[in-house]
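Supplementary notes (optional reading)

For those who missed the lab, this is the record we used. Protein: Xylose isomerase-like TIM barrel domain-containing protein. Length: 268 residues.
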Amino acid sequence: MTCLVGLAEWRLPVSGVEAVRLAAAVGADGVQLDLGGPGRGHWVDAPGRVDALLAAAHAQGVRLLALAGNRFNDVGLTSDAATVRPLLERLLDAAVALGVPLAFVPSFRRGAIDGPDAFARTAEALRWGAAEAAARGLVLANENVLARDQARALVDRVGSTAFRLVLDTFNPVTAGLRADALVASLGDVVADQVHLKDGPSDGGSSPLLGAGEGRLDDAVQALHAHSVAVRALVVENDYRDGDLARMSTDLAWARRRARRFTPTEAGR
């Protein structure tokens, strides 16, 4: 399989079935969906929604790539187990229902890993979640802005082959890091779906891919040089303003870079 190019539902002007249709209309191969929840839109597993999404994906020829638990930005993996575990179970069960191989959770805002206690709580939550993911035949991944050694320590603490790190090409820049350097050190534990963006996640339109400060080509080259199995490049610039021309330009940029990955490198 060649490397796919996808979109992130939570960065689009529409959601749900309409996001799937939009992905097809602009020529994306697939879409990452969000679990939803309070302040995050409808729950993806609300009655009828999974069936509707599967039907739309089939009709439009669009792959459902992964399920994000962005609700964890509001709840925090650092919260108590009684809060975290039911939400992780809901995320993983919804991923199974949607037929996606990857579920991932962020560690920003309420769940920021900002000290030893937050690190320990996050590792414990992810260790439990990775075991649950493995039992379901899934991969669980975490998106964070930890430096190289801390990120490796997190992987070691989780201690599961069903756990990976989500690489975002711009978020590390906000923490004074470089995505290409992280790939060089952590390529063996990077999830096979990579987020491409090239500017701030809030506060206005993101720059076109390749036009910002993310050193995107360096990151893509590092993924190739270190033989990271990349199944999908997922464009995560912000298109909630409805600028479809900018979205199409970014997808074309990503498509050209996706050709660097051979079918073997593109994973399953």
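If you only remember one thing from this example: The CA atoms of residues 15 and 132 lie 27 Å apart.
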